[in-house]
């Protein structure tokens, strides 16, 4: 992989993080005074002034922004208003729970999405294809939060098979992961089918067939690697969507992860925690995009050659 190409991606990612931090900083401070929310309605003006002075909220926005940005570059993400602990510690406590949900949903996405798309492409026009595409349209159309509510009504309230909220066991994880993974699986299935259909009609596939290469080998060695590039692109986007979508799903199922923490922190104007969570999500997106770009060169070395030519030009 061209080092210049990687450096350019890292520079773009750093700029994205800077813009994200700046946007969240401005929006949070423009949406309300944390002192008015954290303190009771009976709090005196002196108490409010003391709170603002303690947390540096009495300074100008520019001074607060420069102070915060300097601290972040040094690894200091501020202190939580709610419990007085470092914001990063508060956020990192919730990361394992969200990662468990996200990776389980990603596994569901891969297991359901990619095989469904491949099968639909190989049996194009058949009842298998029509049935698969019907499910993908349905899964793509239903909002995640609505699907989660339906699952709770059916499997928790009516059948009483699964717990409706909380964590602690595989059965607590099942419904949130299914809710989060099905929409992504529908998208992956559609793109896999489209990409496979495009590759199956390429001249090199007809050449491979003319050479007498077995059907299974043509699919595994020739069709899948070439069809994987657009699928990897969409998969990278959906991984970020799984993390962002966890905010809604964790709220529906009371899953104690980053999503629940973000919602509670926004309601309480816990600025440092909100900024840390958003920055972590943005960092994850940047890393995923970089991994997708690196995967391009591994799947198709011609992309790396093209990048080098573009860089020289």
- The shape, in one word, is flat
Distance between the termini: 17 Å
CATH topology of the largest domain: MetI-like fold
Q: How many helices does DSSP assign?
A: 13
At CATH level 2, the architecture of the largest domain is: Orthogonal Bundle
Question: How many domains is the backbone divided into?
Answer: 2
Low-confidence stretches: 305-313
Under CATH at level 1, the class of the largest domain stands as Mainly Alpha
What Rg do the Cα atoms give? 24 Å
Total beta-strand segments: 0
Describe this structure in words.
This protein is mostly helical. It has two domains: 32-76, no CATH class; 90-312, MetI-like (MetI-like fold, Orthogonal Bundle), CATH 1.10.3720.10. Helices cover 80% and strands 0% of the residues. It contains 13 helices and no strands. It has helices at 3-30, 34-38, 45-54, 61-73, 87-122, 127-141, 144-158, 170-200, 203-210, 215-252, 258-267, 271-299, 301-312. Helix 1 runs antiparallel to helix 12 (271-299) and helix 6 crosses helix 8. The longest helix has 38 residues, at 215-252. It starts with a helix and ends with a helix.
Reconstruct the topology from this structure:
Layout: H1 3-30, H2 34-38, H3 45-54, H4 61-73, H5 87-122, H6 127-141, H7 144-158, H8 170-200, H9 203-210, H10 215-252, H11 258-267, H12 271-299, H13 301-312
Family: Belongs to the binding-protein-dependent transport system permease family.
GO molecular function: dipeptide transmembrane transporter activity
Protein name: ABC transporter permease
């Amino acid at each position: 992989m061209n080092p210049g190409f990687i450096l350019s991606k890292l520079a773009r990612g750093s700029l994205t993080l800077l813009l994200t931090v700046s946007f969240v900083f401005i929006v949070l401070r423009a949406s309300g005074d944390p002192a008015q929310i954290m303190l009771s309605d009976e709090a005196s003006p002196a108490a409010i002034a003391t709170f603002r002075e303690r947390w540096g909220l009495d300074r100008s926005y520019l001074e607060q922004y420069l102070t915060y940005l300097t601290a972040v570059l040094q690894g200091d993400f501020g202190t939580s208003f709610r419990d007085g602990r470092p914001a990063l510690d508060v956020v990192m406590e919730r990361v394992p729970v969200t990662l468990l949900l996200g990776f389980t949903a990603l596994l569901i996405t891969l297991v359901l999405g990619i095989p469904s798309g491949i099968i639909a492409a190989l049996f194009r026009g058949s009842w298998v294809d029509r049935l698969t595409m019907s499910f993908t349209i349905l899964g793509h159309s239903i909002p995640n939060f609505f699907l989660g509510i339906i699952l709770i009504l059916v499997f928790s309230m009516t059948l009483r098979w699964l717990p409706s909220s909380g964590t602690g066991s595989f059965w607590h994880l099942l419904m949130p992961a299914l809710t989060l993974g099905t929409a992504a699986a529908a998208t992956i299935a559609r793109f896999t089918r489209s990409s496979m259909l495009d590759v199956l009609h390429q001249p090199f596939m007809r050449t491979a067939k003319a050479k007498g290469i077995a059907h299974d080998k043509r699919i595994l060695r020739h069709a899948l690697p070439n069809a994987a590039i657009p699928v990897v692109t969409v998969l990278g986007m959906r991984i970020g969507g799984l993390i962002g979508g966890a905010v809604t799903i964790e709220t529906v199922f009371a899953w104690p992860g980053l999503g629940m923490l973000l919602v509670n922190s926004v309601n309480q104007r816990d600025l440092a925690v909100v900024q840390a969570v958003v920055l972590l999500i943005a960092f994850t997106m940047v890393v995923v995009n970089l991994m997708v770009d690196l995967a391009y060169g591994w799947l198709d070395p011609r992309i790396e050659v093209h990048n080098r030519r573009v860089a020289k030009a």
